[in-house]
Amino acid sequence: MVVLNTNTPEFSNDLCDEIRLFFDVRKIAYEDTILAGGYTIWHRQDAENPFFHTCRVYRDGSPAGEAAYEAEAAEPSSVLQYKKMRKRAAKICIYRALVKAAGEEKPWGSLTGIRPTKLMRETWEKEGQAEAERLFREEFDVSQPKIRLLESICGVQRPVIDSVTPTELDIYIGIPFCTSRCAYCSFSSALTSKKGDREREYVDALLREIGLLREIIGGYHVRSVYIGGGTPTALVPEQLERVVRAGAEFAAPEFTVEAGRPDTITAQKLDILKSMGVNRISINPQTTCDATLERIGRSHSAREFFAAAELARRYDFQAVNMDLILGLPGETPEMFLSSVKDVMTQNPENITVHTLAIKRASAFGMANAHRFASGAQAEQMLSESMARLAEGGYAPYYMYRQKYMTGNLENIGYARPGTECIYNIDIMEETCSILAFGAGAISKRVFPSAQTRIERAPCVKDIPGYIARVEEMAERKKKLFCEPV
Ligand code: SF4
Question: What does the CA dihedral 213, 218, 224, 228 come to, rounded to 10 degrees?
Fold first, then answer.
Protein backbone atom coordinates (compact mmCIF):
# COMPACT_ATOMS: atom_id res chain seq x y z
CA MET A 1 0.00 0.00 0.00
CA VAL A 2 1.18 3.53 -0.81
CA VAL A 3 -0.26 6.64 0.81
CA LEU A 4 0.37 10.31 0.28
CA ASN A 5 0.05 13.01 2.89
CA THR A 6 0.46 16.52 1.51
CA ASN A 7 -0.50 20.05 2.48
CA THR A 8 -0.87 20.96 -1.22
CA PRO A 9 -3.86 18.75 -2.15
CA GLU A 10 -4.47 20.96 -5.20
CA PHE A 11 -1.42 19.25 -6.78
CA SER A 12 -2.34 15.74 -5.71
CA ASN A 13 -2.87 14.36 -9.24
CA ASP A 14 0.59 15.51 -10.29
CA LEU A 15 2.15 14.26 -7.05
CA CYS A 16 0.56 10.84 -7.54
CA ASP A 17 2.09 10.75 -11.04
CA GLU A 18 5.52 11.22 -9.42
CA ILE A 19 4.81 8.39 -6.99
CA ARG A 20 3.73 6.11 -9.84
CA LEU A 21 7.18 6.52 -11.40
CA PHE A 22 8.35 4.25 -8.58
CA PHE A 23 5.31 2.14 -7.65
CA ASP A 24 3.08 0.17 -9.96
CA VAL A 25 -0.12 1.29 -8.22
CA ARG A 26 -3.28 2.78 -9.65
CA LYS A 27 -4.76 3.89 -6.36
CA ILE A 28 -2.88 6.08 -3.93
CA ALA A 29 -4.74 6.73 -0.69
CA TYR A 30 -4.60 9.87 1.47
CA GLU A 31 -4.01 9.20 5.13
CA ASP A 32 -3.21 11.34 8.13
CA THR A 33 -0.93 8.79 9.74
CA ILE A 34 2.33 7.10 8.87
CA LEU A 35 1.55 3.52 7.89
CA ALA A 36 3.09 0.71 9.89
CA GLY A 37 3.23 -1.36 6.66
CA GLY A 38 3.85 -0.14 3.10
CA TYR A 39 4.96 3.32 2.06
CA THR A 40 3.95 6.77 3.31
CA ILE A 41 4.99 9.84 1.36
CA TRP A 42 4.86 12.85 3.67
CA HIS A 43 5.14 16.13 1.79
CA ARG A 44 5.04 19.69 3.11
CA GLN A 45 5.08 23.13 1.54
CA ASP A 46 6.77 25.51 3.96
CA ALA A 47 4.37 27.77 5.88
CA GLU A 48 6.54 30.87 5.32
CA ASN A 49 8.05 30.20 1.90
CA PRO A 50 5.65 28.55 -0.59
CA PHE A 51 8.55 27.66 -2.91
CA PHE A 52 10.39 25.63 -0.28
CA HIS A 53 9.22 22.02 0.00
CA THR A 54 10.27 19.01 2.04
CA CYS A 55 9.40 15.34 1.70
CA ARG A 56 10.09 12.24 3.74
CA VAL A 57 9.37 8.70 2.55
CA TYR A 58 8.59 6.06 5.19
CA ARG A 59 8.90 2.34 4.51
CA ASP A 60 6.99 0.18 7.01
CA GLY A 61 6.86 3.14 9.38
CA SER A 62 10.61 3.95 9.27
CA PRO A 63 12.24 6.82 7.34
CA ALA A 64 13.69 5.55 4.05
CA GLY A 65 14.56 8.76 2.20
CA GLU A 66 14.09 12.50 2.42
CA ALA A 67 14.65 15.62 0.32
CA ALA A 68 14.17 19.38 0.37
CA TYR A 69 13.88 21.64 -2.64
CA GLU A 70 13.43 25.36 -3.18
CA ALA A 71 12.14 26.61 -6.52
CA GLU A 72 12.69 30.04 -7.99
CA ALA A 73 10.16 32.42 -6.40
CA ALA A 74 7.29 33.96 -8.36
CA GLU A 75 5.00 36.85 -7.46
CA PRO A 76 1.50 35.80 -6.28
CA SER A 77 0.11 38.36 -8.75
CA SER A 78 1.53 36.29 -11.61
CA VAL A 79 -1.05 33.57 -10.90
CA LEU A 80 0.04 30.90 -13.42
CA GLN A 81 3.77 31.26 -12.73
CA TYR A 82 3.16 31.26 -8.94
CA LYS A 83 1.25 27.98 -9.18
CA LYS A 84 3.71 26.47 -11.66
CA MET A 85 6.79 27.08 -9.48
CA ARG A 86 5.10 25.75 -6.32
CA LYS A 87 3.97 22.65 -8.18
CA ARG A 88 7.43 22.19 -9.66
CA ALA A 89 8.99 22.37 -6.18
CA ALA A 90 6.52 19.81 -4.80
CA LYS A 91 7.13 17.35 -7.66
CA ILE A 92 10.93 17.64 -7.63
CA CYS A 93 11.05 17.28 -3.87
CA ILE A 94 8.88 14.14 -3.84
CA TYR A 95 10.83 12.66 -6.76
CA ARG A 96 14.17 13.16 -4.99
CA ALA A 97 12.94 11.68 -1.72
CA LEU A 98 11.67 8.64 -3.64
CA VAL A 99 15.01 8.26 -5.47
CA LYS A 100 16.70 8.03 -2.08
CA ALA A 101 14.16 5.53 -0.78
CA ALA A 102 14.24 3.37 -3.90
CA GLY A 103 17.95 3.76 -4.64
CA GLU A 104 17.33 4.35 -8.32
CA GLU A 105 16.93 7.30 -10.65
CA LYS A 106 14.53 7.47 -13.59
CA PRO A 107 15.59 8.33 -17.16
CA TRP A 108 13.15 11.25 -17.34
CA GLY A 109 13.82 12.37 -13.76
CA SER A 110 10.82 14.12 -12.21
CA LEU A 111 9.29 15.04 -15.60
CA THR A 112 5.86 13.48 -16.03
CA GLY A 113 4.25 15.63 -18.77
CA ILE A 114 3.25 14.44 -22.22
CA ARG A 115 5.38 16.91 -24.18
CA PRO A 116 8.97 17.23 -22.93
CA THR A 117 10.11 18.54 -26.34
CA LYS A 118 7.69 21.45 -26.03
CA LEU A 119 9.07 22.36 -22.61
CA MET A 120 12.67 22.07 -23.89
CA ARG A 121 11.94 24.21 -26.97
CA GLU A 122 10.09 26.90 -25.04
CA THR A 123 12.84 27.15 -22.42
CA TRP A 124 15.45 27.16 -25.18
CA GLU A 125 13.62 30.01 -26.97
CA LYS A 126 13.16 32.11 -23.82
CA GLU A 127 16.36 31.46 -21.91
CA GLY A 128 18.84 29.90 -24.34
CA GLN A 129 20.09 26.36 -24.92
CA ALA A 130 22.51 26.32 -21.98
CA GLU A 131 19.78 27.24 -19.50
CA ALA A 132 17.37 24.70 -21.04
CA GLU A 133 20.01 21.99 -20.64
CA ARG A 134 20.75 23.06 -17.07
CA LEU A 135 17.07 23.07 -16.11
CA PHE A 136 16.53 19.56 -17.44
CA ARG A 137 19.74 18.15 -15.97
CA GLU A 138 20.04 19.93 -12.61
CA GLU A 139 16.43 20.63 -11.65
CA PHE A 140 14.37 17.91 -13.33
CA ASP A 141 17.20 15.30 -13.07
CA VAL A 142 16.69 14.13 -16.66
CA SER A 143 19.40 11.74 -17.88
CA GLN A 144 21.97 12.89 -20.43
CA PRO A 145 20.76 10.52 -23.22
CA LYS A 146 17.20 11.87 -22.88
CA ILE A 147 18.47 15.47 -22.98
CA ARG A 148 20.42 14.66 -26.15
CA LEU A 149 17.28 13.05 -27.63
CA LEU A 150 15.20 16.18 -26.88
CA GLU A 151 17.82 18.48 -28.35
CA SER A 152 18.15 16.50 -31.55
CA ILE A 153 14.33 16.39 -31.97
CA CYS A 154 14.05 20.15 -31.32
CA GLY A 155 16.70 20.70 -34.02
CA VAL A 156 14.83 18.57 -36.60
CA GLN A 157 11.51 20.26 -35.78
CA ARG A 158 12.74 23.84 -35.92
CA PRO A 159 12.09 24.54 -39.64
CA VAL A 160 8.58 23.03 -39.41
CA ILE A 161 7.74 25.07 -36.31
CA ASP A 162 9.29 28.28 -37.65
CA SER A 163 7.19 28.00 -40.82
CA VAL A 164 3.81 28.26 -39.00
CA THR A 165 1.85 31.48 -39.51
CA PRO A 166 -1.31 32.61 -37.61
CA THR A 167 -3.46 32.12 -40.73
CA GLU A 168 -2.54 28.45 -41.06
CA LEU A 169 -4.20 25.41 -39.59
CA ASP A 170 -4.24 21.64 -39.80
CA ILE A 171 -7.37 19.57 -40.32
CA TYR A 172 -8.02 16.32 -38.45
CA ILE A 173 -10.83 13.97 -39.48
CA GLY A 174 -11.53 11.08 -37.11
CA ILE A 175 -12.98 7.71 -38.06
CA PRO A 176 -13.66 5.87 -34.79
CA PHE A 177 -14.20 2.39 -36.23
CA CYS A 178 -12.00 -0.69 -36.18
CA THR A 179 -12.35 -4.28 -37.36
CA SER A 180 -11.47 -5.74 -33.95
CA ARG A 181 -10.33 -4.35 -30.63
CA CYS A 182 -6.65 -4.49 -29.68
CA ALA A 183 -6.07 -5.65 -26.11
CA TYR A 184 -4.03 -2.52 -25.27
CA CYS A 185 -6.59 -0.08 -26.71
CA SER A 186 -8.32 2.44 -24.45
CA PHE A 187 -9.63 4.55 -27.33
CA SER A 188 -13.41 4.77 -27.64
CA SER A 189 -13.65 3.20 -31.10
CA ALA A 190 -16.53 0.98 -32.25
CA LEU A 191 -16.36 -2.21 -34.25
CA THR A 192 -17.44 -1.97 -37.86
CA SER A 193 -20.99 -3.25 -38.34
CA LYS A 194 -21.95 -6.02 -40.78
CA LYS A 195 -24.21 -3.89 -42.94
CA GLY A 196 -22.22 -0.70 -42.44
CA ASP A 197 -25.34 1.33 -41.50
CA ARG A 198 -23.70 2.81 -38.42
CA GLU A 199 -20.63 3.90 -40.37
CA ARG A 200 -22.80 5.42 -43.11
CA GLU A 201 -24.74 7.44 -40.55
CA TYR A 202 -21.50 8.56 -38.94
CA VAL A 203 -19.96 9.62 -42.26
CA ASP A 204 -23.16 11.56 -43.11
CA ALA A 205 -22.84 13.50 -39.82
CA LEU A 206 -19.09 14.01 -40.29
CA LEU A 207 -19.54 15.48 -43.75
CA ARG A 208 -22.35 17.66 -42.47
CA GLU A 209 -20.03 19.02 -39.78
CA ILE A 210 -17.23 19.69 -42.29
CA GLY A 211 -19.74 21.41 -44.60
CA LEU A 212 -20.89 23.71 -41.79
CA LEU A 213 -17.34 24.93 -41.21
CA ARG A 214 -16.05 25.13 -44.78
CA GLU A 215 -16.69 28.84 -45.07
CA ILE A 216 -14.54 29.59 -42.03
CA ILE A 217 -11.74 27.35 -43.21
CA GLY A 218 -11.68 29.40 -46.43
CA GLY A 219 -9.99 32.20 -44.46
CA TYR A 220 -7.09 29.94 -43.49
CA HIS A 221 -4.33 28.15 -45.35
CA VAL A 222 -4.55 24.43 -44.59
CA ARG A 223 -1.06 23.01 -44.28
CA SER A 224 -1.94 19.42 -43.46
CA VAL A 225 -4.95 17.09 -43.52
CA TYR A 226 -4.82 13.97 -41.36
CA ILE A 227 -7.49 11.28 -41.47
CA GLY A 228 -6.97 9.10 -38.41
CA GLY A 229 -8.84 6.76 -36.16
CA GLY A 230 -9.66 4.10 -35.22
CA THR A 231 -8.90 2.75 -38.64
CA PRO A 232 -10.13 4.90 -41.56
CA THR A 233 -9.59 2.04 -44.02
CA ALA A 234 -11.98 -0.11 -41.97
CA LEU A 235 -14.74 1.78 -43.83
CA VAL A 236 -16.16 0.17 -46.97
CA PRO A 237 -14.75 1.75 -50.17
CA GLU A 238 -17.84 3.87 -50.82
CA GLN A 239 -17.73 5.51 -47.37
CA LEU A 240 -13.94 5.82 -47.42
CA GLU A 241 -14.17 7.64 -50.75
CA ARG A 242 -16.67 10.17 -49.36
CA VAL A 243 -14.42 10.96 -46.41
CA VAL A 244 -11.20 11.18 -48.43
CA ARG A 245 -12.92 13.38 -51.03
CA ALA A 246 -13.92 15.80 -48.21
CA GLY A 247 -10.31 15.85 -47.03
CA ALA A 248 -8.98 16.38 -50.56
CA GLU A 249 -11.10 19.51 -50.99
CA PHE A 250 -8.83 21.34 -48.53
CA ALA A 251 -6.00 20.97 -51.07
CA ALA A 252 -3.32 20.73 -48.36
CA PRO A 253 0.25 19.98 -49.42
CA GLU A 254 0.41 17.17 -46.84
CA PHE A 255 -2.44 14.65 -46.87
CA THR A 256 -2.24 11.61 -44.59
CA VAL A 257 -4.54 8.62 -44.13
CA GLU A 258 -3.81 6.23 -41.30
CA ALA A 259 -4.50 2.92 -42.97
CA GLY A 260 -3.44 1.22 -39.76
CA ARG A 261 -4.65 -2.35 -39.89
CA PRO A 262 -2.99 -4.29 -42.72
CA ASP A 263 -6.11 -6.46 -43.11
CA THR A 264 -8.16 -3.41 -44.14
CA ILE A 265 -5.88 -2.45 -47.01
CA THR A 266 -6.99 -3.44 -50.52
CA ALA A 267 -6.03 -2.28 -54.01
CA GLN A 268 -9.47 -0.67 -54.37
CA LYS A 269 -8.97 1.43 -51.23
CA LEU A 270 -5.41 2.38 -52.18
CA ASP A 271 -6.71 3.43 -55.62
CA ILE A 272 -9.14 5.77 -53.85
CA LEU A 273 -6.42 7.27 -51.63
CA LYS A 274 -4.00 7.76 -54.50
CA SER A 275 -6.55 9.23 -56.89
CA MET A 276 -7.61 11.80 -54.26
CA GLY A 277 -4.07 13.04 -53.65
CA VAL A 278 -3.26 11.29 -50.38
CA ASN A 279 0.54 11.39 -50.14
CA ARG A 280 1.20 9.70 -46.79
CA ILE A 281 -0.22 6.51 -45.31
CA SER A 282 0.62 4.28 -42.40
CA ILE A 283 0.50 0.51 -42.22
CA ASN A 284 0.96 -0.66 -38.67
CA PRO A 285 2.11 -4.18 -37.86
CA GLN A 286 2.91 -3.40 -34.15
CA THR A 287 4.96 -6.63 -34.15
CA THR A 288 5.87 -9.21 -36.77
CA CYS A 289 5.42 -12.12 -34.35
CA ASP A 290 2.17 -13.97 -35.13
CA ALA A 291 1.81 -15.37 -31.61
CA THR A 292 1.95 -11.84 -30.16
CA LEU A 293 -0.47 -10.52 -32.79
CA GLU A 294 -2.96 -13.13 -31.69
CA ARG A 295 -2.34 -12.38 -28.02
CA ILE A 296 -3.02 -8.66 -28.50
CA GLY A 297 -6.22 -9.15 -30.49
CA ARG A 298 -5.06 -7.91 -33.89
CA SER A 299 -7.03 -9.61 -36.61
CA HIS A 300 -4.10 -9.96 -39.03
CA SER A 301 -0.90 -11.94 -39.40
CA ALA A 302 2.65 -10.80 -40.12
CA ARG A 303 2.21 -12.17 -43.63
CA GLU A 304 -0.76 -9.89 -44.23
CA PHE A 305 1.36 -6.95 -43.09
CA PHE A 306 4.13 -7.77 -45.58
CA ALA A 307 1.56 -8.24 -48.37
CA ALA A 308 -0.09 -4.87 -47.58
CA ALA A 309 3.31 -3.15 -47.47
CA GLU A 310 4.26 -4.62 -50.84
CA LEU A 311 0.93 -3.60 -52.36
CA ALA A 312 1.23 -0.03 -51.00
CA ARG A 313 4.74 0.33 -52.47
CA ARG A 314 3.28 0.04 -55.98
CA TYR A 315 1.35 3.27 -55.38
CA ASP A 316 4.46 5.31 -54.71
CA PHE A 317 3.15 7.42 -51.83
CA GLN A 318 5.61 10.12 -50.72
CA ALA A 319 5.86 8.52 -47.29
CA VAL A 320 4.74 5.32 -45.65
CA ASN A 321 4.87 5.04 -41.86
CA MET A 322 4.92 1.78 -39.91
CA ASP A 323 4.14 1.59 -36.17
CA LEU A 324 5.68 -0.86 -33.71
CA ILE A 325 5.02 -1.33 -29.99
CA LEU A 326 7.75 -2.31 -27.58
CA GLY A 327 6.95 -4.22 -24.40
CA LEU A 328 4.08 -6.34 -25.76
CA PRO A 329 3.38 -9.35 -23.52
CA GLY A 330 5.63 -12.32 -24.07
CA GLU A 331 8.14 -10.37 -26.17
CA THR A 332 11.84 -10.26 -25.32
CA PRO A 333 14.26 -7.53 -26.47
CA GLU A 334 15.47 -9.95 -29.19
CA MET A 335 11.92 -10.45 -30.48
CA PHE A 336 11.31 -6.73 -30.58
CA LEU A 337 14.54 -6.06 -32.43
CA SER A 338 13.58 -8.73 -34.94
CA SER A 339 10.30 -6.82 -35.62
CA VAL A 340 12.32 -3.62 -36.10
CA LYS A 341 14.56 -5.37 -38.63
CA ASP A 342 11.55 -6.91 -40.43
CA VAL A 343 9.90 -3.52 -40.77
CA MET A 344 13.14 -1.99 -42.03
CA THR A 345 13.24 -4.54 -44.87
CA GLN A 346 10.11 -2.78 -46.19
CA ASN A 347 12.06 0.47 -46.43
CA PRO A 348 9.36 2.80 -45.06
CA GLU A 349 10.14 6.52 -44.86
CA ASN A 350 8.88 6.70 -41.25
CA ILE A 351 8.87 4.21 -38.37
CA THR A 352 7.14 4.97 -35.07
CA VAL A 353 8.18 3.08 -31.96
CA HIS A 354 5.56 3.15 -29.22
CA THR A 355 6.15 1.96 -25.68
CA LEU A 356 3.28 -0.15 -24.38
CA ALA A 357 1.02 1.82 -22.03
CA ILE A 358 -1.37 -0.27 -19.98
CA LYS A 359 -4.48 1.88 -19.54
CA ARG A 360 -7.26 0.96 -17.19
CA ALA A 361 -9.91 1.04 -19.95
CA SER A 362 -8.02 -1.52 -22.08
CA ALA A 363 -8.42 -5.32 -21.95
CA PHE A 364 -4.82 -5.49 -20.62
CA GLY A 365 -5.72 -3.01 -17.88
CA MET A 366 -8.79 -4.97 -16.82
CA ALA A 367 -7.30 -8.47 -16.75
CA ASN A 368 -4.08 -9.37 -15.08
CA ALA A 369 -3.37 -12.30 -17.34
CA HIS A 370 -0.08 -11.41 -19.02
CA ARG A 371 3.57 -11.04 -18.29
CA PHE A 372 4.85 -7.70 -19.49
CA ALA A 373 8.40 -6.52 -20.07
CA SER A 374 10.19 -4.92 -17.12
CA GLY A 375 11.25 -1.27 -17.25
CA ALA A 376 14.87 -2.36 -17.81
CA GLN A 377 13.88 -4.63 -20.72
CA ALA A 378 11.79 -1.83 -22.24
CA GLU A 379 14.74 0.56 -21.95
CA GLN A 380 16.94 -2.02 -23.70
CA MET A 381 14.36 -2.36 -26.52
CA LEU A 382 14.17 1.40 -26.88
CA SER A 383 17.92 2.00 -27.01
CA GLU A 384 18.67 -0.99 -29.27
CA SER A 385 15.92 0.00 -31.71
CA MET A 386 17.18 3.57 -31.74
CA ALA A 387 20.71 2.40 -32.59
CA ARG A 388 19.46 0.03 -35.31
CA LEU A 389 17.22 2.71 -36.83
CA ALA A 390 20.08 5.25 -36.79
CA GLU A 391 22.19 2.78 -38.79
CA GLY A 392 19.35 2.61 -41.30
CA GLY A 393 19.27 6.41 -41.69
CA TYR A 394 16.25 7.15 -39.45
CA ALA A 395 16.36 10.08 -37.02
CA PRO A 396 13.89 10.84 -34.19
CA TYR A 397 11.66 13.76 -35.19
CA TYR A 398 8.80 13.83 -32.67
CA MET A 399 8.09 12.22 -29.35
CA TYR A 400 5.55 12.16 -26.55
CA ARG A 401 4.90 10.37 -23.30
CA GLN A 402 1.73 8.89 -21.82
CA LYS A 403 0.66 7.71 -18.42
CA TYR A 404 1.29 4.07 -17.48
CA MET A 405 4.02 3.49 -20.09
CA THR A 406 6.36 0.60 -19.40
CA GLY A 407 9.47 1.97 -17.67
CA ASN A 408 7.94 5.50 -17.92
CA LEU A 409 9.57 5.76 -21.32
CA GLU A 410 8.29 7.46 -24.48
CA ASN A 411 6.92 7.07 -27.99
CA ILE A 412 9.31 8.15 -30.73
CA GLY A 413 8.57 8.90 -34.36
CA TYR A 414 11.57 8.34 -36.67
CA ALA A 415 11.92 9.63 -40.21
CA ARG A 416 14.41 9.60 -43.04
CA PRO A 417 15.53 13.26 -43.31
CA GLY A 418 13.02 15.32 -45.30
CA THR A 419 10.11 12.91 -44.80
CA GLU A 420 8.89 14.13 -41.39
CA CYS A 421 5.11 14.39 -40.95
CA ILE A 422 4.16 18.02 -40.32
CA TYR A 423 0.88 17.07 -38.64
CA ASN A 424 2.64 14.90 -36.03
CA ILE A 425 4.96 17.76 -35.11
CA ASP A 426 2.12 20.30 -35.03
CA ILE A 427 -0.10 18.22 -32.78
CA MET A 428 2.61 17.44 -30.27
CA GLU A 429 4.23 20.85 -30.15
CA GLU A 430 0.96 22.82 -30.16
CA THR A 431 2.33 25.59 -32.37
CA CYS A 432 -0.36 25.40 -35.08
CA SER A 433 -4.16 25.44 -34.73
CA ILE A 434 -5.98 22.20 -35.48
CA LEU A 435 -9.59 22.05 -36.58
CA ALA A 436 -10.73 18.53 -35.77
CA PHE A 437 -13.88 16.78 -36.97
CA GLY A 438 -15.51 13.62 -35.66
CA ALA A 439 -16.47 11.90 -32.40
CA GLY A 440 -13.91 12.56 -29.68
CA ALA A 441 -11.83 14.87 -31.88
CA ILE A 442 -10.38 17.91 -30.09
CA SER A 443 -9.94 21.19 -31.96
CA LYS A 444 -7.27 23.58 -30.72
CA ARG A 445 -6.85 27.21 -31.54
CA VAL A 446 -3.37 28.57 -30.92
CA PHE A 447 -3.30 32.30 -30.24
CA PRO A 448 0.30 33.34 -30.74
CA SER A 449 1.49 36.08 -28.40
CA ALA A 450 4.28 36.54 -25.86
CA GLN A 451 2.45 33.96 -23.73
CA THR A 452 0.91 31.55 -26.24
CA ARG A 453 -2.72 30.85 -25.39
CA ILE A 454 -4.38 27.61 -26.49
CA GLU A 455 -8.13 27.09 -26.43
CA ARG A 456 -9.81 23.78 -27.07
CA ALA A 457 -13.19 22.63 -28.38
CA PRO A 458 -13.73 18.90 -27.87
CA CYS A 459 -16.41 16.89 -29.69
CA VAL A 460 -18.54 14.40 -27.76
CA LYS A 461 -16.88 10.99 -27.67
CA ASP A 462 -19.74 8.57 -28.18
CA ILE A 463 -20.81 8.04 -31.77
CA PRO A 464 -24.63 8.35 -31.35
CA GLY A 465 -24.12 11.49 -29.24
CA TYR A 466 -21.88 12.97 -31.91
CA ILE A 467 -24.37 12.20 -34.69
CA ALA A 468 -27.20 13.77 -32.70
CA ARG A 469 -25.27 16.91 -31.72
CA VAL A 470 -23.15 17.62 -34.76
CA GLU A 471 -24.63 21.09 -35.40
CA GLU A 472 -23.87 22.11 -31.82
CA MET A 473 -20.26 20.87 -32.18
CA ALA A 474 -19.85 22.86 -35.40
CA GLU A 475 -21.24 26.01 -33.76
CA ARG A 476 -18.73 25.74 -30.91
CA LYS A 477 -15.83 25.49 -33.35
CA LYS A 478 -17.16 28.31 -35.47
CA LYS A 479 -17.00 30.58 -32.43
CA LEU A 480 -13.49 29.47 -31.57
CA PHE A 481 -12.07 29.88 -35.06
CA CYS A 482 -13.80 33.21 -35.74
CA GLU A 483 -12.29 34.84 -32.65
CA PRO A 484 -9.69 37.41 -33.76
CA VAL A 485 -6.03 36.46 -33.15
S1 SF4 B 1 -6.46 -0.18 -34.27
FE2 SF4 B 1 -6.03 1.45 -32.79
S3 SF4 B 1 -8.02 2.36 -32.31
FE4 SF4 B 1 -8.41 0.37 -33.29
S5 SF4 B 1 -8.62 -1.07 -31.61
FE6 SF4 B 1 -6.48 -1.14 -32.22
S7 SF4 B 1 -5.46 0.38 -30.94
FE8 SF4 B 1 -7.66 0.78 -30.78
Answer: 20
Kindly state the helix (H) or strand (E) to which residue 215 belongs, with its residue range.
Answer: helix 197-217
Q: For a substitution probing ligand 1, which of 175, 177, 182, 411 has the most ligand atoms within 8 Å of its CB?
A: 182
CA 397 to centroid of ligand 1, rounded, Å: 23
pLDDT tens figures, 73-124: 999 889 999 999 999 999 999 999 999 999 999 999 999 989 999 999 999 9
163-437 and 1-104 share a CATH fold: no
Q: What is the whole-number distance in angstroms between the Cα of residue 32 and the centre of ligand 1?
A: 42
| Amino acid sitting at position 204 | D
In the predicted model, what is the mean pLDDT of the chain?
94
149-180 in b/e form (b: 16+ CB < 10 A) is: bbbebbebbeebbeebeeebbbbbbbbbbbbb
For the chain, the straight-line distance linking the first and the last C-alpha, in angstroms and rounded, comes to 50
**Mutation choice for ligand 1 from 178, 283, 463, CB with most ligand atoms inside 8 A:** 178
What dotted CATH number matches 163-437? 3.20.20.70
pLDDT per residue as tens digits for the range 292-310 = 999 999 989 999 999 999 9
pLDDT number for residue 260: 87
pLDDT at residue number 369: 61
Domain boundaries along the sequence of the chain: 1-104, 107-152, 163-437
Q: What is the pLDDT of residue 450?
A: 63
Ligand 1 atom with the shortest distance to the CA of 176:
3
Residue 260: CB within 6 Å of ligand 1? yes
CATH number 3.40.50 given to 1-104: yes
**What is residue 362's predicted lDDT score, i.e. its pLDDT?**
82
User: Quick count: other Cβ atoms within 10 Å of Cβ 376?
Assistant: 10
CB within 8 Å of 195: residues ≥ 6 apart: none
- CB of 230 within 6 A of ligand 1: the answer is yes
What is the average per-residue pLDDT within 435-443?
Answer: 97
